[in-house]
From TrEMBL:
Binding site for ATP: 290
Highest taxon listed in the record's lineage: Bacteria
Cofactor names: Zn(2+)
Gene behind this protein: cysS
Protein name as annotated: Cysteine--tRNA ligase
HAMAP family: Cys_tRNA_synth (MF_00041)
Binding site for Zn(2+): 35, 230, 255, 259
Complexes and interactors: Monomer.
A Pfam family this chain is assigned to: DALR_2
Length: 494
């Protein structure tokens, strides 16, 4: 029997404003769409956090035995600098500044995105469609919305008529905004815009003569509006009505609100049952964002080469740091937070290393099955990873007590404990144990490298450069590699 039949998940649904019991449209299958990056710059750690939240959710759903089709797009056209359909296309602007083709920008930052996600041990999505690969679908969608009376063309551009739509639908259903308030709060059109009302949004924009990213359409040579691509691609790969749609909190309005409106206007139905929004990573009290310069890049975390951190951290430590916060909570990026997570991560790994050599007994002093269900309960409660981690620390404590002969475990319970810890730590949270990863084929290279570092450390000590020798010892220690100085020289434990 698949695990999902034994576990009931509740998901906080931004649409209902409550934790709803998760019931997929087709039993055993889950369709999940997550808005991907706009590939005009390197992804920063804030972006990584949102994608990591959905990677963890994807992993858990798979673990429960669901057949998940996870679609995460690449936005490679149509995302303007400003939500009000103004400003330059972000990719075209970068291409202009760097004097390269827009598709070179797209290629460069798509590769960076994939490399970053690989470094953090993300699972690839099932389908990763691009906006430029779906222009025909977007044009067809616009035609349908115009035919249904919810969009209008002016000077080669097409806009969604929000007020018309709102007469019989609810624009604001997701973000809980009222159209009247939106009208009140948006500034008057300055006469430059072709829109009937400032709340309307672009489905198609006529391209300026110098705009390279352009495609022919019934209205003009131009490009699609940003909101449209996600409706076109989610419909194509998951159907007009699917289970989960996710993204960062900042996409709830206008992006996701517009997606609902487009689907409703084109197909007469709401597209998604569960809308999920991941919260922001902040630094110095402000949202991490490329535009303000308040950001840190993944490579800087790994190398330690950034003023906000005192040293480098492994991808798994950074991942652990992020998963120690619930995905719907704001997370403050701090050096102290990372250092604490590193300690916690090492404590967990040390306990996991002991699992293979624990003595067994005729009784267990912990109810292991009850503990295991607590781990599932944490994840079933809207993917509560901080509570899950607290249970894993409880297990780590138990393992240490067994090792110190202050607690006992039966052989059967030890097998359950081991299997459960491995499932939650490695498969679901996606953490990697540097030591065992390296043991899978790279141990010789690793040993050689550590021996080289030991030699360099000896040289440093001979030169009385104790700062360097300590640095080598401490940084290896951080990676879980302990140096032992003995009378016959220095040995090490991996
Ligand atoms: P973008 O490429 O700007 O569309 O962003 C890609 C994803 O990263 C979106 O889901 C955003 O909501 C998310 N995101 C952007 N900034 C942050 C942040 N500081 N913390 C968490 N997620 C973010
Ligand atoms: Zn989207």
């Amino acid at each position: 029997m698949p695990l999902y039949k034994q576990q009931e998940i509740k998901i906080y649904n931004s649409l209902s404003g409550e934790k709803d019991v998760f019931k997929p449209i087709h039993e055993g299958y889950v369709g999940m769409y997550v808005c991907g990056p706009t590939v005009y710059s390197n992804v920063h750690l804030g972006n990584v956090r949102t994608f990591m939240s959905f990677d963890m959710i994807f992993r858990y759903l798979k673990h429960l035995g669901f057949k998940v089709r996870y679609v995460r797009n690449i936005t490679d056209a149509g995302h303007l600098e400003n939500d009000a359909d103004e400003g330059e296309d972000r990719i075209a602007k970068k291409a202009r500044l760097e004097e390269i083709e827009p598709m070179e920008v797209v290629q460069r930052y798509t590769v960076d995105f994939h490399n970053t996600l690989n470094a953090f041990n993300f699972l690839p999505p099932s389908i990763e469609p691009t906006a430029t690969g779906h222009i025909i679908e977007q044009i067809e969608l616009i035609k349908t919305i115009i035919d249904n009376g919810f969009a209008y063309e002016v000077n080669g551009s097409v806009y969604f008529d929000v007020l018309k739509y709102n007469e019989i639908n609810n624009y604001g259903i997701l973000s809980k905004r009222k159209v009247e308030d939106l009208i009140h709060n948006t500034r008057e059109l300055d006469g430059q815009s072709d829109k009937k009302n400032p709340q309307d949004f672009a489905l198609w924009k006529k391209a300026e003569p110098r705009h390279i990213m352009r495609w022919p359409s019934p209205w003009s040579d131009g490009f699609p509006g940003w909101h449209l691509e996600c409706t076109a691609m989610s419909t194509k790969y998951l159907g007009e009505h699917f289970d989960i749609h996710g993204g960062g909190m900042d996409l709830k309005f206008p992006h996701h609100e517009c997606e609902i409106a487009q689907n409703q206007a084109a197909k007469g139905q709401t597209p998604v049952n569960y809308w999920m929004h991941a919260n922001m990573l902040i630094m110095n009290g402000k949202k991490m964002a490329k535009s303000t310069g308040n950001f840190i890049l993944p490579n800087e975390i790994f190398s330690g080469d950034n003023e906000h951190i005192s040293k480098g951290f492994t991808p798994s430590v950074a991942r652990f740091f992020m998963l120690q916060a619930h995905y719907r909570s704001v997370l403050d990026f701090t050096n102290d937070g990372l250092l604490a997570s590193e300690k916690g991560f090492n404590r967990l790994m040390d306990a996991i290393h002991l699992l293979d050599s624990l003595p067994t007994a005729t009784t267990s002093t912990l109810n292991v099955l009850e503990w295991k269900q607590k781990c599932y309960d944490a994840m079933n409660d809207d993917f509560n990873t901080p509570i899950l981690i607290a249970h894993l620390f409880e297990a780590a404590k138990y393992i240490n007590q067994i090792n110190d002969e202050k607690a006992t475990i039966t052989k059967e319970d030890l097998a359950i404990l081991k299997e459960t810890i491995h499932a939650f730590v490695f498969d679901i949270m996606g953490l990697q144990d540097t030591v065992s990863t390296n043991a899978n084929g790279n141990s010789d290279k690793l040993s050689g490298t550590v021996e080289l570092l030991i030699k360099l450390r000896q040289e440093a000590r001979a030169n009385k450069d104790f700062a360097l020798s300590d640095q080598i010892r401490n940084e290896l220690d951080t990676l879980g590699i302990q140096l032992n100085d003995g009378k016959d020289g220095t040995s090490f434990n991996l």
